[in-house]
Predict the 3D structure of the following.
Amino acid sequence: MKPFTYFSPTTLSDATRVLADYGADARCLAGGTDLLIRMKRHQWLPRAVVNLKRIPWLRDVAINAELRIGALVTLQDLVRAPIIREHFPVLAYAASKMAGVQVRNLATVGGNLCNASPAADTAPPLIALNARAVVVGARGERVIPLDEFFTGVGKSALAPDEILCEILVPRDDAVRASFIKLEHREAMDISIASVAVSLRNQKSEIKNQKCEDVRIVLGAVAPVPMRARQAEEILRGKELTEERIRQAARVAAREAQPIDDVRGSAWYRREMVEVLTRRQLIAMGKNVA
Ligand SMILES: Cc1cc2nc3c(=O)[nH]c(=O)nc-3n(C[C@H](O)[C@H](O)[C@H](O)COP(=O)(O)OP(=O)(O)OC[C@H]3O[C@@H](n4cnc5c(N)ncnc54)[C@H](O)[C@@H]3O)c2cc1C
């Protein structure tokens, strides 16, 4: 590691001031499970490291009209928090499939999103739930829909002086969501492909399995976690028949933009997107019936 100046502010305004001063030469520190590895490998050589952990409210989870998840909430908090387990079980489930307990005790939701890996596992379920990111910088606060947050591999819409403070998830009892992650082994592995699906059904429509709204979000098969919008269009406002589901899954696979890498070939990933999308939609359709 190269020498750097370490800051440990207790307020957001102090933190954003340091970020504004150092610009692209500063990095925030949350759990450090991505940052410290990159620094040790000399991939990132910040001149300033800004520890966010002393800003207390960034670790809150609260629910009202919507769920608010502080950026410093750890993955293990997500697995355990009664509010999340009761109202958004898909988030607890997705977090439980990430890393192992030791890493989950350190790693934060905000760090997972800001690291902007195409395989960040919190992203697909949060995008499926229509989440928004609240970010604060030297010039004030803005809210970014999470499906616009990722701009490329390792890149996000955050300006160098901005901090992700919390994630807002709308509360809607008519929405159900699920997530599947394909990995080589059951723990400590990065997704080969993942799919999150959310379905919105009005109670009156449950009998004929009509889907009022749908989101299909693919992970690890494109430069950014992405919505399969053409596949969504096939289902939106329609009855969830098996044929329609199969068609949507085929289209989702065509929309994916996978690459070949150590974890799997582009061909395999595309095939898996179709399988994972179809399985989830069929299972969710059955639950509606
Ligand atoms: C063994 C192991 C297994 C893993 N398994 C998985 C897995 O299964 N799935 C998966 O998705 N990931 C996995 N990861 C990756 C990693 O744990 C996650 O991405 C983690 O959530 C990152 O959070 P963090 O708090 O540690 O971030 P940090 O390492 O502290 O930060 C990551 C990046 O985000 C920036 N940042 C952090 N917080 C903020 C903020 N609030 N505002 C602005 N910028 C911020 C930092 O400056 C840095 O650039 C694994 C990592 C390890 C070491």
Remarks:
- Residues 5-51 form a domain with the Uridine Diphospho-n-acetylenolpyruvylglucosamine Reductase; domain 2 fold (CATH 3.30.43.10).
